[in-house]
Design a protein that fits this description.
The chain is an alpha/beta fold. Helix content is 30%, strand content 27%. The strands form six sheets. The chain has a six-stranded parallel beta sheet, sandwiched between helices. A six-stranded mixed beta sheet has the order 15-13-16-18-24-23. A four-stranded mixed beta sheet has the order 3-6-7-8.
């Protein structure tokens, strides 16, 4: 039976996911078999496991930090928002259906056995489980039937570390206010607080930390610095979207669709010193990039309508006509085709058919059964500008409701416009290199000037950097005592 520890936060985006990943890495470094767990995750950034199940990307990152393969048991419930008031509900990696928020909350207790089965099966296989909460445990309107914060902590008898974000300001009010709103038995589960994302001299915090300990009745388990690591973010909260990187030797524009999903597909291009990757949501921001990506989306039809209304569709078509390489992934690939049909209203966008951008010779029809699979192979017969991909091995995964061809190749291309259903298609060694070599040749610059690095070694260094910062900021002796139930 595994020891467990749960990380809860005063609000969303306090750094729970990264802190859990850091702890997973630390426990692994210390010789333990460790796995992450989050009973319910809301994210459009998802992943397909080797068994064909879909799970949230945050737990994939945490599993990678722990040195183990992702498993849907680590995230038994995944909510993928389809509208402002509804989500696709995925249980144990498979689609249960689309539900409005109120319907989901009415039925949530029905899903509890699936959550506990997943947890207990991991419990039997690992030494330590690092559990991540969601949002805040002090959402008192959601306390009844809670299965992701204190409700879950009680069910699996988990001690809790409560995390606040000092970078936003008001961290003492965050932490004490959260504790004050909890029921006595819930407060008893909190064994320490953590001040996260701190910049500056820790000595300045000492008077406040002492008062916080007196008010909350538990020790401060750590002051973790603001950590600069290149590790996948939760989708709606990523700083990538708000950053304004300077344009470098090669400039890549990713169209930031309103319902963008799996934006991590483009992370391999961020690991070149002289390549800028910009997420663009306004026509005025597009400029004249060297390469344009259309990403995946949870609602292809609605986002294509937005693309059209924003003026970005016309701009992308104009760039393509001028020879700029354009590449669409999943929903972005569907948009590049001739038409998109949704006769059964799978996407619930209120439109049964919409003309595509007409840049690729494909027609997409949405069907009720979701494609969820990992895939790999060797590129063959890739035409045109990206012919240099031929002979290279690719890996990745597919998640889509639409079908554009019964048997579609890994990449469909016409001239300088390409599309693929494969998420992670640029992750395998040499794939991003091959794409950028073409772009460099078109621009008349040397590929060697981009200064690339080994992607896997780079990723592992990021996890080690994260673990070092968390280890130095946390009282790890206290954390281990909490695990052993000595606190």
């Amino acid at each position: 039976m595994a020891k467990n520890i749960m990380i809860q936060g005063t609000m969303s985006n306090v750094g729970k996911s990264l802190l859990c990943a850091g702890l997973c890495r630390i426990f692994r470094q210390d010789g333990y078999r460790v796995a992450p767990f989050k009973s319910q995750n809301m994210a459009l950034n998802s992943f397909i496991t080797a068994s064909g199940g879909e799970m949230g990307r945050a737990q994939v990152v945490q599993a990678e930090a722990a040195g183990i393969a992702p498993d849907v048991r680590m995230n038994p419930i995944l909510l993928k928002p389809t509208t402002d008031v509804g989500s696709q509900v995925i249980v144990n990696g498979q689609v249960l259906g689309n539900m409005k928020a109120m319907e989901y909350y009415r039925r949530k207790r029905e899903l509890l056995p699936a959550v506990l089965d997943a947890y207990h099966s991991l419990d039997a296989e690992y030494d330590i489980l690092v559990i991540e909460g969601a949002g805040s445990p002090a959402e008192i309107n959601l306390r009844q039937d809670d299965i992701v914060n204190m409700g879950l902590a009680k069910l699996v008898d988990a001690p809790v570390l409560l995390v606040g974000d000092i970078d936003r300001g008001g961290v003492f009010a965050q932490l004490y206010g959260t504790v004050a709103l909890l029921e006595p038995e819930e407060r008893a589960r909190i064994k320490g607080t953590v001040v996260n994302k701190f910049r500056g001299d820790r000595a300045i915090l000492k008077p406040g930390l002492k008062t916080l300990e007196a008010l909350c009745g538990v020790p401060v388990a750590g002051v973790v610095p603001y950590i600069h690591v290149d590790i996948d973010d939760e989708d709606s909260l990523t700083q990538r979207f708000s950053a304004c990187p300077e344009r470098k030797l090669l400039d890549i524009a990713v169209i930031r669709l309103p319902r963008i999903s799996n934006f991590t597909d483009f992370a391999p291009f961020e690991r070149y010193e002289n390549v800028s990757v910009r997420f663009v949501e306004r026509l005025s921001e597009l400029g004249d990039p060297d390469l344009i990506f259309l990403p995946g989306t949870k609602s292809t039809i609605a986002d294509l309508q937005w693309l059209r209304q924003s003026g970005l569709e016309a701009a992308v078509c104009k760039a393509a006509a001028a020879g700029t390489p354009v590449f669409g992934i999943c929903g972005g690939y569907q948009m590049l085709g001739r038409s998109i049909s949704d006769p059964d209203q799978v996407e619930a966008a209120g439109v049964t058919e919409l003309a595509g951008m007409g840049l690729l010779p494909v027609e997409t029809v949405f069907r009720g059964e979701k494609v969820q699979t990992q895939t790999s192979g060797v590129f063959q017969k890739v035409p045109g500008l990206l012919g240099g991909l031929n002979g290279l091995r690719y890996t990745g995964y597919e998640i889509h409701m639409g079908r554009s061809r019964e048997l579609h190749p890994p990449v469909v291309g016409q001239g300088n416009v390409y599309g693929s259903y494969i998420h992670g298609i640029f992750d395998a060694p040499d794939i991003a290199d091959a794409v950028l070599r073409v772009v460099c040749q078109r621009k008349g610059i040397s590929f060697s000037n981009l200064h690339s690095c080994d992607a896997d070694a780079y990723r592992q260094r990021q996890y080690d950097t994260l673990a070092q910062a968390v280890r130095e900021g946390m009282d790890m002796d206290l954390v281990y005592r909490i695990l052993r139930r000595e606190e």
